[in-house]
């Protein structure tokens, strides 16, 4: 048995640097040189980061620290939305980069569709929260009213979204879509959003949409052509190997619109990272399953970019570190074979609790 003196001699002196593997790893992550930010052009002449940092469900200090870590690391773009209720926290992190380096995007919630006054007020509120004079991209968050048009503002009871029991959410009535909503309202809303892109004092450098089906997107493009309005610069939709969004991506590619994937990791709901094919390919390449999924998205086309979220600085870097390897044609084919998309299907994650957006 070692004496007390021997144990003391073998221990590092008080205040000395510890050298455990876990600590070494954390220090290496902190000292890691940020990865270069890849960008791709959008139809306004600007460019968007290929891998952008998402903030859905990040709140308070956790949101602020995660955004700061991302922007100090390998990300120059951040995606938020008025309905995420975290714009002010995102705004507090933006000083990590110069404004010229940043790409900031937020979204107009459906409760502010309709009049020019409502649309402009929503952007004013977003800019105030972000502490910015302008955003690089402003997206129409949802093409239709969802359940809010016909039912009280509710959430489904746990444990699953398909549960029949519902309960009220306090103050959620403030997020209801206008009661007079019609499909034509989204087109007029687009017209109002476009006014914010004009002139030297433009408050939105580019505009786009989220969660639009191929039908709705074609309808919007036809409206833009007829009314001489700007086309969407970006369409942000759910996209991953189970739901590859093939038709919407095709419409975007044909008109020079960037397609931005969200939910590419499956958001924990679909267990994509646990899929056997994903894990096998990760092992073949010596990378993480998340890296396989992000790389899959970036290889779908030159006009495809990704918004991906993590609260961990290590995983943030891992998710952005996807350009040092390439999926083979066979590997892309194996991932393509995982599709569960039904005809016309536009969403697979949490939005299953509402009508598919192409309903509207």
UniProtKB/TrEMBL annotation:
PANTHER family: 2,5-DIKETO-D-GLUCONIC ACID REDUCTASE, NADP-DEPENDENT OXIDOREDUCTASE DOMAIN-CONTAINING PROTEIN. Belongs to the aldo/keto reductase family. InterPro entries: AKR (IPR020471), NAD(P)_OxRdtase_dom_sf (IPR036812), NADP_OxRdtase_dom (IPR023210). CDD domains: AKR_AKR1-5-like (cd19071). This is NADP-dependent oxidoreductase domain-containing protein. Signal peptide: none annotated. It holds the Pfam family Aldo_ket_red. Keywords: NADP, Oxidoreductase. Residues 1-34 are annotated as: Disordered. The lineage of its organism: Eukaryota, Sar, Stramenopiles, Ochrophyta, Bolidophyceae. Residues 66-335 form the NADP-dependent oxidoreductase domain. The keyword Oxidoreductase applies.
């Amino acid at each position: 048995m070692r004496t007390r003196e021997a144990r003391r001699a073998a221990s590092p002196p008080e205040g000395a640097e510890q050298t455990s593997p876990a600590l070494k790893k954390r220090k290496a992550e902190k000292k890691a040189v940020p990865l270069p930010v890849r960008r791709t052009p959008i139809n306004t002449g600007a460019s968007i980061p290929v891998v952008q940092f998402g903030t859905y469900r990040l709140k308070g200090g956790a949101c602020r620290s995660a955004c700061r870590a991302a922007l100090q690391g390998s990300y120059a773009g951040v995606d938020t939305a008025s309905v995420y209720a975290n714009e002010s926290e995102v705004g507090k992190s933006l000083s990590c980069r110069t404004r010229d380096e940043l790409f900031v995007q937020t979204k107009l919630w459906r409760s502010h569709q309709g009049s020019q006054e409502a649309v402009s007020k929503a952007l004013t509120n977003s800019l105030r929260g972000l502490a910015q004079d302008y955003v690089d991209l402003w997206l129409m968050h949802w093409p239709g009213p969802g359940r809010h048009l016909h039912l009280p503002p509710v959430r489904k009871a746990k444990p699953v979204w398909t549960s029949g029991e519902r309960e009220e959410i306090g103050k959620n009535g403030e997020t209801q879509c206008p009661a007079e909503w019609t499909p034509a309202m989204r087109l007029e809303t687009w017209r109002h959003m476009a006014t914010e892109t004009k002139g030297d004092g433009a408050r939105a450098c580019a505009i786009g949409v989220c969660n639009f089906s191929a039908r709705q997107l074609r309808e919007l493009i036809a409206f833009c052509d007829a009314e001489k309005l700007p086309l969407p610069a970006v369409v942000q939709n759910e996209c991953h190997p189970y739901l590859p969004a093939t038709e919407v991506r095709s419409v975007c590619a044909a008109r020079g619109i960037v397609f931005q994937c969200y939910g590419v990791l499956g958001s924990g709901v679909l267990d994509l990272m646990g899929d056997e094919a994903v894990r096998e390919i990760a092992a073949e390449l010596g990378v993480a399953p998340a890296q396989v999924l992000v790389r899959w998205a970036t290889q779908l086309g030159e006009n495809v970019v990704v918004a991906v979220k993590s609260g961990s600085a290590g995983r943030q870097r891992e998710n952005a570190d996807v350009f040092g390897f390439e999926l083979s044609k066979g590997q892309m084919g194996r991932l393509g074979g995982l599709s569960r998309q039904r005809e016309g299907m536009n969403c697979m994650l949490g939005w299953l609790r509402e009508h598919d957006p192409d309903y509207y």
